[in-house]
Amino acid sequence: MDYADRPVYNVSDSVPPSVLVLSILQHFFVLAVYMTYPVIITRALGGGEDLSTFLISATLIGSGIATLLQAFRYTGCGYIFPMVPNSSYLPASMLAATAGGLPLLYGMMIVSGFLEMILSRLTRYFRLLFPGEVVGVVMFMLGLAIIPFSFPLFFGSGESGPLDPAATAVGIITLGSMILLGIQQKKIFRFYAVLIGILIGLVSSVLFGVLTPADIESAGSAPLFSLPNPIGIVSYSFDIGLLVPFAIGMLCVMLKSAGNIALLDEYTGETGRGNLRRGILSEGFGAALCSAIGGIGIGSSASNTGLIPGTGIASRNIGLGLGLFLIICGFLPAIGWFFHIMPEPIMGAVVIYAIAFIMLGGVQSISSRVLDNRRTFVVILPIMIGVSSVMCPNLYTALPETIQLFFASPLTSGAIFVVILGLLFKIGLPTHTSIRFGKHPEIDVSRLLLDCGRLWTMDKTQMFQIIHHIQALIRAMPEGMHPEELTITLKNSTGTLSAELTVPGPVDETAMKTAGHYPAFVTVAAAADKTIVRSRYIMI
């Protein structure tokens, strides 16, 4: 990802107390919109305000614990990685809630969480399943999936009705303020663009009558502190018939998190440390724990991830503070009321601002790859299928109910099909190729690596870096020595590419290992009449 600059405060950096507090508040306001999901499930069950408050409180506590685990390097991905109610679980959760109430929802979510924990052990094969262009499609579809939810909020259209002029004005003022502040040169405006935008939005909500004094007074009637009471609410049941829809939701959540972690890996430079494996494991544990204490299905937040490159603040201290703050909020009933009175256009503006960075990251991830005709269809067809689920909502209604869940949102259908097509179009691809050098070995290297780039969908920048490194190896050979053959091997399961140069004579091992500037593992093996120079590259 080619952002204009790198984090101002990177993962391991300490941040001033003022930056810490205000950044926590920004992330809290961004994830606030997801706390409407417990309210949606409450309405599906026909529950009242007490049930809604309990679900929000339990979900806040579970989300806080999971966010804390993610922020630690040894228990999670080590980033600001808030765990929030996830839209991918919403269709299956609604189905479970209406079929068997909250006990069935809790039981199925616990199973889903443990299933994700098991799959986290297979992250070494994720590059085979989720190469850069696949992750890019998932990131792009994340934005599309949020649009049907965020834009009605932004325009105050309620249940997808016509837009409300006053609410639209508030949304435009809020979003416009965030954008104008976010593009300023002074870092203080960029850091707090979302928070200042929300404050401006609240003022405009009062001026336009979107937020009334009665709304504010109703929040004041809530008690200051209360322990969530699970008695009579929390119990567990299981239905094997619901395993498929929950498994689909879990896979989408996992793909979403893989994309979010990939974005943060690239933005912060914190790669190669098992971030993905620990992040997925912690997410699965967090989802199971949250449901066990009475919350709903949680996963990573694309909006909060997009906020990190948007502000330039990536310090894990923000994640630790946010986790503690969420836990505390779980014992404050007034927080639940806050979500009821916060004007919808403000929440919509916050989400739109954040997902812009996610969708841009997806486009950049796709465009960074060398795509042949096969991979072009792997990228385009899932996007078309995902968009069709939004633009043609009645197209799939004749399918069985379980299969319809694949098309419940563009994220679900797009993510599933991009993985399936990605694997299908790998069938028959060779993983080994070689070339006998002619009179111009450096040109031959370029030709072979360009072919490999198209064949194996390599990152464009890395492909040229490898070309330049192998050319540097050739130039470092003794004067007059002409390499005989170059062999390139791709190991998809481990995500490595190996280059093997066959040289007709001895070479200087030190010169080989110091040639070029690309970080590669180089070995030299001498035989009776030739030398084999091997270099290995970790694929991105």
From TrEMBL:
Superkingdom of origin: Archaea
Source lineage: Archaea, Methanobacteriati, Methanobacteriota, Stenosarchaea group, Methanomicrobia
Membrane topology summary: Multi-pass membrane protein
Record-given protein name: Purine/pyrimidine permease
Family statement: Belongs to the nucleobase:cation symporter-2 (NCS2) (TC 2.A.40) family.
Transmembrane segments: 20-41, 53-72, 92-116, 128-154, 166-184, 191-211, 231-255, 318-340, 346-366, 378-399, 405-429
Organism: Methanocorpusculum petauri
Record key words, sorted: Membrane, Transmembrane, Transmembrane helix, Transport
Pfam families: Xan_ur_permease (PF00860)
Subcellular location per the Swiss-Prot or TrEMBL entry: Membrane
